[in-house]
Design brief:
binds adenosine-5'-triphosphate; 22 strands; DNA ligase i, domain 1
């Protein structure tokens, strides 16, 4: 098949915005495409050479392309840059210049889809010290063999600027019309949901029609579309949809679909390949699974010192990173909380109920610090779920997800078998608070010999007590950390008894109690309800206190304040009320 045929379709598609017309052009092309190259044609229609989940990028830098255009056309790089500025598109510029080309080539081998595709692959895969030469040489060959119009599309494809705007769903429509019937469209989409390789689907359909489609099965290494959750406004609403749910923490990180076969691959919710960005997760997975599986979970950044979960912003430092991957992994360690098992030891688990999938997950997973099963309870009791929700928030999660334990894994679908319930209030702390240090947690690793986190309290001026409001582990420099054992007076120092000071109200037991004396300035992200902290207990809600979420030390010790001059419980309540705003949907 000639590359020209593809270019003609590109042109037709560019000239319409109507989906039906687009589909008709695609059908026409697909029908005349030989089965051996139909997968390649499908990728090229989307400006790619592989499906997104394959970790090979086509990307060629504009500079390199300009060099190759210059060699092929005889125009200087400056002249080419000028033309690009004038036309506003490197593809158009290439076409124009190649038409006026200063040197004629004697040999021109007409481009076929296969020869163009092979050239793209050679360019994408070129590595090592002469990779630039290989890329330029191959691109020059392509440009020489193509006519000016074909060259326009070659350049656009290689620079990732083809942008025909053909959605996956339009290609599925076209495949159904070309190789099956309209009625088969849902079956084709279902196959695509568990096997997200459009080229592969096209090939099966083209070679064997619907029979071919039946052979499509979950395969380790080919990502499955993620099942998605509906949103509830309240726990009651959740329970209306699922009477007896499994309730899990809704972790605030990045969803990862883990494929473990001969190799380990990690895919994002959008099915991009993230394997190289998380080498630490890959190593940890090697230790905990020794069977072929596909599992799913949320990857969350942890505080290096305290092991506490950090908000999404922290893990976003790890995402999309090509350089300093190892260093960033050390700075932002992560844990993966697994919540589903989609395939195990040769068996497709997606049609099995969640309860069975979870059982399988727990059976195959060897306990580990970095890879854990998601925290969950089974309950239909509103109050119990409410406390679980508050605990989730306090532990750094976004909320909870309720799941129907008998439900299948519906790839690519959003439904009421999974329901998310997030904090429905947004509050940002507008001011810093001054809190009293009442306890310390022993440090580990770099913090051995000092404290990993401190337990902080506000002052209840009516009761003359100190009520805990958060644990802080961030914002300390090395010098402060080293000094900390001297700064705080440990209660057990004199009598060897680690007894809670009388005026401290706490449900948390730190490793060491301190006399409430030292006041530090803290900035948090927000104030939330808490099932654990004693600040304002039972005042806003029965059984709950208030906590400061994501607190960090500002670096200021308030030596000018006594413990009784610290922020009071009343002030924390006021702050909470002020911050209580409904989130705009
Ligand atoms: P959506 O995925 O619903 O389109 P979104 O991308 O904003 O919306 P969220 O609102 O965060 O996602 O809700 C769903 C996401 O929650 C999942 O895709 C997953 O990444 C995350 N998540 C965290 N913990 C869990 C859990 N225990 N079970 C399922 N999903 C979880």
């Amino acid at each position: 098949m000639k590359f020209r045929d593809l270019v003609e379709t590109y042109k037709k598609i560019e000239s319409t915005t109507k989906r039906l017309e687009m589909t008709a052009h695609l059908v026409e092309l697909l029908k005349k495409t030989p089965p051996e190259i139909i997968d390649k044609v499908v990728y090229l229609l989307q400006g790619k050479i592989y499906p997104d989940f394959v970790n090979i990028e086509l990307g060629v830098a504009e500079k390199l392309a300009i060099k190759a255009i210059s060699i092929s056309s005889g125009f200087s790089e400056k002249e080419i840059e000028k033309e690009i500025r004038e036309t506003g598109d490197i593809g158009e510029a290439t076409e124009k210049l190649m038409k006026k080309k200063k040197q004629r080539s004697f040999f021109r081998e007409e481009l076929t889809v296969k020869s163009a595709y092979d050239g793209f692959v050679r360019i994408a895969k070129a590595q090592g010290k002469d990779s630039q030469d290989v890329k330029i040489k191959t691109l020059c060959e392509l440009l020489q063999n193509g006519d000016p119009e074909e060259d326009k599309y070659i350049i656009r494809t290689l620079l990732g600027r083809l942008r025909l705007g053909i959605a996956d769903m339009t290609i599925l429509d076209a495949l159904a019309i070309a190789f099956a019937t309209k009625e088969d469209r849902p079956a084709i989409e279902r196959a695509y949901n568990v096997y997200s390789d459009l080229g592969g689907i096209a090939k099966k359909l083209c070679e064997g029609s619907l029979e071919g489609l039946k052979e499509i099965k979950i395969q380790v290494g080919v990502p499955i579309k993620a099942m998605l959750a509906e949103r509830a406004k309240s726990i009651e609403e959740m329970l209306e949809h699922i009477r007896d749910p499994v309730v899990e923490y809704k972790y605030d990180g990045i969803r990862l679909q883990v494929h473990i076969g001969k190799e380990i691959s990690l895919f994002s919710r959008r099915l991009e390949n993230l394997t190289e960005q998380f080498p630490d997760v890959v190593n940890a997975l090697k230790k905990v699974f020794d069977k072929e599986v596909i599992v799913e979970g949320e990857c969350v950044a942890l505080n290096r010192e305290t092991g506490e979960m950090l908000p999404f912003q922290a893990i976003s430092h790890r995402r999309g990173r090509k350089y300093e991957v190892e260093e960033t992994a050390k700075e932002f360690p992560v844990a993966l909380f697994l919540f589903d098992c989609l395939y195990a030891e040769g068996e497709d688990m997606t049609q099995k109920p969640l309860s069975e999938r979870r059982k399988k997950l727990e059976e195959l997973l060897k306990p580990d610090q970095e890879i854990r099963a998601s925290h969950m309870i089974r309950s239909k009791d509103k109050d119990e779920i409410e406390s679980f929700f508050l605990k989730a928030i306090e532990d750094g999660c976004e909320g909870i997800v309720a799941k129907a334990s008998e439900s299948e894994y519906k790839a690519g679908a959003r439904g009421w078998s999974w329901i998310k319930y997030k904090r429905d209030y947004k509050s940002e702390m507008i001011d810093t608070v001054d809190l009293v240090v009442v306890g310390g947690f022993a440090g580990q690793g770099r913090r051995a010999g000092t404290y990993g986190a401190l337990l902080l309290a506000c002052y209840n001026d009516e009761e003359d007590t100190f009520e805990t409001v958060c644990k802080v582990g961030t914002g300390f420099d090395d010098e402060t950390l080293a000094k900390m054992p001297e700064i705080f007076e440990r209660v057990d120092k004199d009598n060897n008894k680690n007894k809670k000071p009388a005026r401290v109200e706490s449900a948390i037991e730190p490793d060491y109690w301190f006399d409430p004396k030292i006041v530090m300035e803290v900035l948090g992200a927000e104030i939330t309800l808490s099932p654990v902290h004693t600040c304002a207990r039972d005042i806003i809600r029965k059984g709950s206190g208030l906590a400061i979420r994501f607190p960090r030390f500002t670096g200021r010790w308030r030596k000018d304040k006594s413990a009784e001059e610290a922020t009071t419980t009343k002030e924390i309540i006021e702050l909470y009320k002020k911050q209580l705003k409904k989130v705009e949907e």
